[in-house]
Design a protein that fits this description.
40% of the residues lie in helices and 20% in strands. By secondary structure, the chain is of the alpha+beta class.
């Protein structure tokens, strides 16, 4: 089967992982354009991106399936999670799960999978000499699944145990509740782990129908990064995946997430000693220009040696542990989250002070250039410090083949911006005005989600 080339492109890393956002990455030098990257679409719709990095003695293959919890319904909530587990552990028509695991170890391979709201990811890192094994194994594992009632029941019990562990983890539970209430009325509202009752009742026939619907080449992308000749790898990919049929599949399109119509406040009691507070706000999506300012703001407020999110608490002498701020950008909407652990008597004060501080953030100084005269000398340049940390993480990510491959696989499915440009250049262009505008837009939201996990009341 022939493939349709997209382009030979110097921008090989169309996405590097910076925190929770997978954004556009840096270009190769123009002199390396023809020999370092190649992208094409096969006749059956599979999108492929190849990056040659001779410095890596491995090949890193990531297969992205445009299938996440967004694609479930109330009646199928949890099937994506089951499917990811089953593909990873339960075997195919040719080999059992144990045989696949043994073959992976024998070839020195790392194999894993992940489920999200937008995508399911399947990844293999393996010595470059075993490229043929990696590609044939990916095809077999993903497209030749053998569903068995006994194996399904065993896997369901493992997943139900994971759900039980989630209920016992105050941080994970509070964040799950934040997402479920932040995206009310949108497919992102459904939890990634799924509904326990739906999982218990899932049948082989139901899972088979779900699997056949979404596991098709036109709904997938494949990124390979490592030590290989581009043209030779293209021939291998076409030989292995070219036999998969195209069925005219078209993925569903979803609306963008909407603003919260009201503030949501949840208090949940658990057998804990501390209080756990999580706050959620709607943020920009994966294809929104504001993602760059939000990355810098998240770095300023939630990371580094002097995170600004501590400031409203320390000035009120409120001690908080594990205080974190994160930003996740999905295709149809984003989320800004703040989590912390603190003394139960202080959680309401912390909530009040952080909320006030977030609303003030549109007037804060983020750069020494925002100040005049002698004050510049003593001011901490939060913005430049954040940009430096982002650039450092970006440069580190360039050397991790699996990170590059994961980013590219996601990008091919999620990107909607032509000529998106280079991520770190976008970051460099951000100034204090951009930060204040974005802070006012997103941190100054009228409505937020607050989830407090509290010790059980004494009766």
């Amino acid at each position: 089967m022939k493939s349709m080339p997209i382009k030979r492109n110097p921008i090989w890393a169309a996405a590097l992982a910076i925190g929770l956002l997978w954004a556009t990455a840096s270009p190769l030098s123009s002199q390396d354009e023809d020999r370092q990257s190649l992208s094409f679409i096969m006749d059956n719709g599979l999108k492929v991106f190849l990056v040659r990095k001779p410095t890596l003695p491995l090949i890193n293959c990531v297969f992205a399936v445009n299938l996440g919890s967004k694609d479930e319904t109330e009646e199928t909530s949890g099937l994506v999670h089951i499917l990811e587990h089953y593909i990873l552990f339960r075997g195919t028509k040719q080999r059992s799960g144990e045989e696949i695991a043994l073959d992976m170890r024998r070839h020195g391979a790392y194999f894993n999978a992940h489920t999200g709201r937008d995508l399911s990811l399947f990844e293999i890192s393996i010595p470059a000499s075993h490229a043929d094994f990696a590609l044939s194994s990916l095809k077999e594992i993903l497209f030749d699944l053998k569903l068995d009632p006994t194996a399904l029941e065993e896997e369901k019990q493992i997943i139900l145990e994971e759900l039980s562990q989630l209920q016992d983890d105050p941080f994970r539970l509070s964040l799950s509740l934040v997402y479920q209430n932040l995206f009310t009325g949108h497919p992102y509202q459904r939890p990634i782990f799924g509904n326990a009752e739906i999982i218990r009742q899932a049948t082989v026939e139901e899972l088979e129908k779900f699997y056949r619907r979404f596991l098709v080449p036109a709904n997938c992308s494949l990124a390979i990064v490592g030590d290989f000749p581009l043209e030779a790898m293209q021939e291998k990919v076409e030989a292995v995946f070219g036999s998969l049929a195209s069925d005219g599949f078209k993925p569903a399109a979803y609306a963008k997430t909407a603003e919260l119509s009201e503030t949501v406040e949840i208090e949940h009691e658990m057998d804990v000693q501390m209080a756990y507070l999580s706050i959620g706000l709607i943020g920009p999506d994966y294809n929104h220009q504001d993602q760059y300012a939000m990355d810098v703001l998240t770095e300023i407020f939630g990371r580094g040696i002097n995170p600004m999110i501590y400031h409203p608490l320390t000035r009120r002498r409120i001690a908080a542990n594990s205080l974190r701020m994160g930003f996740s950008a999905q295709k149809y909407g984003g989320a800004v989250t703040i989590t912390m652990a603190l003394e139960p008597k202080n959680w309401k004060r912390a909530k009040r002070e952080i909320t006030r501080y977030l609303k003030e953030s549109r007037r804060l100084n983020y750069s020494s250039d925002d100040l005049l005269g002698e004050a510049q000398i003593y001011a901490m340049d939060f913005m430049q410090s954040a940009k430096n940390r982002i650039r450092l993480e970006g440069e580190r990510a360039r050397e991790r083949g699996l990170a590059i491959a994961t980013s590219l696989a996601r990008y091919m499915v999620m990107n909607e911006i032509p000529d998106r440009g280079e991520y770190l250049e976008h970051i460099a262009e951000i100034d204090s005005t951009d930060l204040r505008r974005a802070a006012g837009e997103y941190f100054g939201r009228k409505n937020m989600v607050f989830v407090a996990i509290l010790p059980k009341s004494e009766k």
